[in-house]
Specification:
mainly alpha; cell membrane; transmembrane transporter activity; membrane
């Protein structure tokens, strides 16, 4: 067999192993190691490449952003800022039919601007938004679906761990990735709110049950209270994102400053003690180690693809049949939608990017824009069965036994469709992602 055929067989074997339940980094690393061994008939070469992969992952300065922003997101969540921003947005939107759903989207967007975590958003807003919507006689599928759909905003609105991972793998600037994520994040948030408004008028029974009426929240706040609750979150956003965009702070320094400020706010609110602080540190370590393991395995996978010549062969195939940019984008989107039924977002990024990067670079596309497309495409997998991590988090967090996992997936389906529409718009108009870049 040719190296290309062996490479393709290894990719299929890896997907099969993942589907059978093998831990994703193990599948990536093991298949890549064995394939390189077979291709070069040398056990020492994959060992040497493994050492290089580990060293490259650990020693990259930009990798420090992952534990810092992860810790900041955990601390901000423990400080209760998710509940505060939800109360603020609920006060603004409650008069509109479907307004509590719109408030959930707005709150998730603001919360994402300081946490960058879809899982944290799904967990927080399942506890605060779903009970509120159920109390106001909203449809249960809509209630959990809007939380699932809006929770993915944490993956695209900076600071985002997925944008950082892409920046590391594609060797792009983290600051540029953050800048490129602003307009797409706002677009996706606005598209969700518009979709809720349209559904409330054209498909009202999906949004609210019969007899539901708009009622003011029990904790309706004055303008002064809104301002007081908003200031800490605004301060964090200005510190983190403002520091990066003005050039005063590097992304690593911004992560450190945000984590420190979040910790100060949590202490000032009396929301954290030594035990919860230690738990946040441990959880940060677990998440960081898992991401590091995944990046190391993906580095081996990338080297295996290069040795097998898979990206070059695909490029030659496209050139032979005169398939250009549009065909590459169709292949990319279809592959990400397929992988989204099996894998988490980080895994999709780390599998797709090494495969397509050598193909899209000769086409002259902006690699920062390409990163935004990959991240949003991979995000759709958070809402699709059978994996749908955000949907599983919501089901495991919610205490209502009448809401099944099927209800969560069905409720999230319209929001996955909205994401796909926004993705197509961003593919057609790359300027929307790159206009803020220097």
């Amino acid at each position: 067999m040719s190296p290309f055929e062996i490479g393709l067989i290894s990719v299929v074997a890896m997907v099969v192993m993942i589907y059978l339940g093998v831990y994703i980094p193990i599948a990536l690393g093991m298949v890549s190691f064995v394939t390189i061994w077979i291709l070069r008939d040398s056990f020492q070469l994959p060992l040497a490449l493994l050492k290089i992969a580990v060293g490259d992952s650990v020693t990259q300065y930009s990798f420090a952003t992952i534990p810092l922003f992860t810790f900041m997101g955990l601390i901000v969540s423990k400080a209760g800022m998710g509940e505060d921003v939800y109360r603020v947005m609920n006060t603004v939107f409650y008069r509109i039919t479907g307004g509590v759903g719109m408030a959930t989207v707005g709150a998730n967007a603001l919360f994402a601007a300081v946490t960058g975590s879809s899982i944290a958003s799904a967990s927080v807003f399942t506890k605060v938004a779903v009970p509120e919507m159920m109390k106001l006689n909203y449809n249960k599928r809509f209630a959990v679906g809007v939380v699932a759909g809006s929770s993915v905003l944490g993956m695209i609105i900076p600071p985002s761990a997925m944008l950082i991972i892409y920046a590391i793998v594609a060797e792009q600037s983290v600051g540029h990735m953050f800048l490129a994520g602003i307009i797409p994040g706002i677009m996706l948030s606005g598209a969700y709110i518009l979709a809720i408004w349209v559904m409330a008028r054209l498909w009202p029974r999906f949004v609210v049950n019969e007899g539901a009426v708009n009622k003011a929240p029990e904790d309706l706040m004055s303008a002064a209270q809104l301002l007081m609750l908003s200031l800490p979150l605004v301060g964090l956003v200005i510190t983190v994102l403002g520091g990066i965009y003005t050039g005063w702070l590097t992304p690593v320094e911004a992560g450190a400053a945000g984590a420190a400020l979040g910790l100060v706010l949590a202490i000032a609110r009396g929301k954290i003690n030594l035990k919860s602080f230690w738990n946040a540190l441990l959880e940060t370590g677990h998440i960081t180690a898992a991401i590091l393991f995944l990046i190391t395995a993906a580095s081996m996978y990338s080297r295996m693809l290069g040795i097998a010549g898979v990206p070059n062969a695909l490029g030659d195939f496209l050139e032979t049949y005169q398939l250009g940019f549009a065909a590459v984008m169709v292949m990319l989107v279809l592959l990400m939608l397929f992988l989204g039924t099996l894998l988490d977002t980080a895994s999709i990024i780390l599998i797709v990017v090494p495969l397509f990067l050598p193909i899209v670079e000769p086409l002259g596309v902006n690699l920062v824009w390409f990163g935004i497309i990959v991240v949003i495409g991979a995000e759709i997998g958070l809402l699709t069965p059978p994996l749908g991590i955000s949907c599983f988090v919501i089901k495991s967090t919610i205490s209502d036994p009448t809401i099944s996992l099927k209800d969560v997936f069905m409720g999230a389906l319209p929001f996955a469709a909205v994401m796909l529409c926004v993705l197509l718009v961003l593919i057609e108009f790359p300027i929307l992602s790159t206009v803020l870049l220097p």
